[in-house]
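hey m, so remember when u said the tokens were messed up on ur end? i reran from scratch. heres the input so u can diff it against urs
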Amino acid sequence: MPSQAQNTEPSTTNTGTHKSKISRHIGLWLGIAILMFTLIVPAPEGMPAPAWHVVGVGLLMACWWATEALPVPITSLLPMVLFPLIGITSMKAATTPYAQPVIYLLFGGFVIATALERWNLHRRLALYVLNLVGDHPAAIIAGFMGATAFLSMWISNTASTIMMIPIALSLAHVILRPQREKGHAFSLCLVLGIAYAASIGGLGTLIGTPPNALVAGFMASEYNIQIGFVQWMAFGLPVVIVMVPLAWFILTRWVFHFQLDHNPQAHDVIRTELTNMGRWTRPERRTAYAFITIALLWITRPLLQKYLGLPGLNDALIAVGGAISLFLIPAGNHKDNPSEKSQSLLDWESASRIPWGVLLLFGGGMSLAAAVNSSGLALWLGEQLAGLTTLHMLLLLFALVSLVIFLTELTSNTATTAALLPVLGAIAAPAAFDPMMLAAPAALAASCAFMLPVATAPNAIIYASGEVTIAQMARAGFWLNIVGIFIVSTLSYFLVPIIFLP
């Protein structure tokens, strides 16, 4: 799931802060200058004037998103101000994308994830998985990566990483005793494995990371193509299943190879953590039942639509309905502990902490995409980029995925996806191939940046822990980026036509 902390590297020096301030100022004025240029200078030959103005607004937003000249969510509100003001679209047309069903799907997913975290159900599930993997250090790393990847399919990658790191460091202390070597290959593999698995796991579901849902919203609003929860899982889950073991292999057998024997004490740490959690509480059980029910509804939705005569049932409805139910279901906590006041599984104080800014970013991206189409810019871009469509599709995918992966090492994955989707749609149009052939792999690639702390919140978290240096992260992340390019491009080439195209 999307991280509640956007891609921010922990500030460690005054120099870094100074550079960041300079880049924000440059981005602020560069964006304004580009917009003013498009308002003053006539449009290129053959391009409609509204399309030229959309270019200006789009580049302004791209500059401000990339440099965070303004907070990313605030930049995402620009279309509803600038489009009507400049005369590109009406206020209604500019604001409608901010209420697309996919935004409510993501909202419901955030709320459901909050309930899992509120009652520590995600921690218990992770410990159960870790308890099964045994006491060999390499197997322990695999267990941490598998558990983290699974959790990140449903909750934010930030939450799953923050939860796993303290447990991982406790285990590292036991396994590397008597001296706790910072920078030991085992501890490097452990913390990097958790961060990488958190990013990879989000690829598996529509709510796993914002770019996935952004593609679904873009396809629905611009092409009237509905992407179901199960459809995306059929596409994203194979990528997760292939990439997590490959990431484990790259870390433990290639980049940071180590030789350590079985350590029964490591297993004792996990059992102690589980014991300290005590028996399943009523809130945990009820949250688990609610979560399983919601997940089953997502998975069986096509069957329910067909056999129960519920054509209006969709993934966003299930997500919001599931979120509402969490406020209605009693937690039962007072039965476990009579001194506690009776509560529902979720309250507004907890739910209000969801990342609202991500929802605004979605709306801004889709409003921009709608204007690209309605202004004629998509058609013009398609004509200019028609030469790209002569490339073999697999080669085009490799080029696209490489660009997106290395671009998102430095920029927000969601903002990058939002900016690229209209362009990808324009490339697909003149070649008469389905835009999903480019949009789906671009979404996956946006979450596959592994080299730098600024690339993802999990990377920033483990860097802030002091367990890994930027050089060590870049060394492992580079090879994982290369593997990601190959896996995402190849699997997309074969899976997208089977799963998404009629």
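this time it looks ok to me. Residues 1-16 have pLDDT under 50 and may be disordered. if urs says something different then somethings off w ur setup not the seq
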